[in-house]
Write a structure and sequence with these properties.
single chain, alpha+beta, five-stranded antiparallel β-sheet, five-stranded mixed β-sheet, 10 helices, 58% helix
């Protein structure tokens, strides 16, 4: 509904702008037509009647021109008033006899017509003194000026006042046309928008269902992985630790303190391993801990289980806080998966985890000297994320995943992604 309302508001603005532009063009066209019409009157009808007798005020000549104007022009056209001016500002003729012989200062437009001979037309507000008798026809009239020559060669200015109704009618015609087009356009546009909105809504709902299903699958996979890690790691370690503690208790009761000390040392190591496993699980459950501590600290914690098993592990992070939280988490997830594969399959003695900058990208390298990659590790039946998950992770970050492995020569994982 907001989309449709906004579109209709935009359409209304366009219609209003179109009306204003169209009204302006209509007024301009009427002015042009009035100028041409005035020129035709000046040279074809009024000009031949500008005799020396008329200019001298002969009643018969004046009556003849009055008859032409009042009987042939005014009733059949939008013409309201006619005047003839001399170059010195004297009204030589007017269809209103009260104005004949009066002198007014010529306007800049009138002087320009006398000077250039170019006819002109404009909308007059009738504010000048020479327009006193024209105000009864309305507040605005269309005023034209055309240069003519009398029969004796005298130059004169032919002035006409035409009704403003023609401009108003043109504007109403433009408005009516635009209104009709606007209504038709609004109806068609609304129908199109409603149809498009329904299509988009169906697509959004379908996409939402897909995302919900993916979220459920990811959540289920994460819960399975968490349960497996706890069961296979921490729970088993704690169970073993409980047996060791029981053995140490029996040794203490039998006063074999050396055996009890050895067993308690082993229990302490097992508890430390369990704590490290739980810390890893906490990072998965609550990633904010990972973001607060930084990528370097998180990878160092990730390497501890390897070190407790006697695997020489090197962690080198050349870029940390420059990475976005999303990229840091993606790098950690990829390293975590690689370390899991090493612990479960590689039988390695040395592991290197390196994070390096590569221009506007970041590079993760995980290498080991183990037995290499066994077949079908990417299809682990236990629901393990696997290499296919790493490939998906790289694709989400617009990255590239490359893995080299050979029997007896270890595995090299290279993951490059955007920062």
């Amino acid at each position: 509904m907001r989309l449709i309302a906004g579109s209709l508001a935009g359409l209304a603005v366009l219609v209003l702008a179109g009306y204003l532009v169209g009204a302006r063009l209509a007024e301009r066209q009427v002015v042009i037509d009035a100028r041409h019409f005035s020129a035709l009157l000046a040279h074809g009808l009024v000009g031949p009647h500008l005799t020396p007798e008329l200019l001298a005020g002969d009643p018969q000549a004046v009556a003849e021109l009055n008859r032409v104007i009042n009987e042939r022009l005014v009733p059949r056209t939008s013409l309201r008033r006619v005047k003839v001016w001399s170059p010195d500002g004297r009204i030589l003729y007017s269809d209103d006899r009260r104005e004949v012989g009066k002198v007014f200062p010529l306007s800049s437009t009138q002087r320009s017509v006398f000077r250039t001979g170019t006819a002109t037309a404009e909308v007059s507000d009738l504010s000048g003194d020479e327009s006193t008798f024209e105000r009864k026809f309305g507040r605005r009239l269309l005023e034209t000026y055309t240069l003519v020559r009398a029969q004796n060669g005298q130059r004169a200015l032919f002035e006409t006042y035409m009704s403003y109704d023609q401009i108003r009618e043109q504007r109403e015609a433009v408005f009516g046309t635009l209104l009709l087009l606007a209504v038709a356009g609004a109806v068609l546009f609304a129908c199109f928008q409603v149809g498009l909105a329904r299509i988009n809504l169906r697509w959004v709902r379908r996409r939402q269902r897909e995302l919900d299903e993916q979220a459920r699958a990811v959540s289920e996979r994460a819960r399975q992985r968490l349960a497996r890690d706890l069961h296979d790691g921490t729970v088993q370690d704690l169970v073993g630790t409980s047996y060791v503690v029981d053995g140490a208790l029996q040794a203490v009761r039998g006063r074999d303190l050396r055996q009890a000390e050895r067993l308690l040392d082993g229990a302490a190591d097992s508890v430390r391993n369990s704590i490290q496993s739980l810390r890893t699980v906490m990072i998965e459950v609550y990633p904010r801990t990972f973001h607060d501590r930084g990528l370097s600290a998180a990878l160092t914690d990730l390497a501890l289980p390897l070190r407790t098993r006697g695997v020489e592990t090197l962690v080198a992070v050349g870029v940390d806080h420059e990475l976005s939280p999303e990229t840091s988490e993606a790098v950690y997830r990829a390293a975590q998966e690689a370390v899991r594969n090493v612990m479960k399959h590689a039988r390695a003695t040395t592991v290197r985890i390196c994070v390096e900058p590569a221009g506007d990208r970041v590079l993760l390298l995980v290498t080991d000297d183990g037995i290499g990659m066994p077949p079908r590790i990417d299809g682990s039946p236990e629901g393990h994320l696997g290499l296919s998950g790493l490939a998906d992770l790289a694709a989400e970050r617009r990255g590239c995943l490359e893995i080299w492995a050979a029997p007896g020569r270890g595995t090299h994982l290279r993951l490059e992604m955007q920062r």
